[in-house]
């Protein structure tokens, strides 16, 4: 009686090799063609606003227009989790570098339709469409609200 525990079947090894080869081929194709790479946009900014974000004691997040100091939006706990998560991730980078919350974040809509969020203090940039349409649109609504508030 033989014990086959710990032996990986030949078909599983071949399957894993094929998945790896296909993944590498797609990565190479994307790298060569530049298809959907989240690099620097190849267009000019269409609209850009600077915002400042503060955590409130009740767990909400207040978003201010950095240029005017006006409150643009309050994100309540449990709502717009992506906005809260993205801003907290950038804030964490600032904490690691001993940077306060005063420098603004820059939200930019590019001519090619991409939307990015940049930390002006660290240079860290997030291309928001990489996180899905719903998450991108949450920041697009924030951009529209900021621009709209300035024109009122």
From TrEMBL:
Keywords: Membrane, Transmembrane, Transmembrane helix. The chain crosses the membrane at residues 12-32. This is Photosynthetic complex assembly protein. It comes from Rhodovibrio sodomensis.
């Amino acid at each position: 009686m033989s014990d086959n525990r710990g032996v990986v079947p030949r078909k599983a090894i071949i399957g894993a090799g094929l998945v790896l080869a296909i993944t590498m081929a797609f990565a190479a194709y994307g790298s060569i063609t530049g298809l959907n790479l989240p690099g620097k946009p190849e267009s000019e900014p269409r609209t850009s606003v600077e915002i400042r974000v503060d955590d409130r004691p009740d767990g909400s997040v207040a978003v201010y227009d950095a240029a005017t100091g006006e409150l643009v939006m309050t994100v309540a706990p449990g709502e717009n989790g992506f906005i809260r998560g993205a801003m907290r991730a950038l804030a964490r980078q600032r904490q690691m570098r001993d940077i306060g919350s005063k420098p603004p974040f820059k939200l930019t809509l590019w001519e090619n339709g991409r939307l990015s969020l940049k930390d002006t203090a660290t240079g860290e940039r997030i291309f928001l469409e990489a996180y899905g349409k719903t998450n991108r649109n949450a920041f697009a609504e924030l951009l529209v609200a900021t621009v709209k508030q300035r024109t009122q």
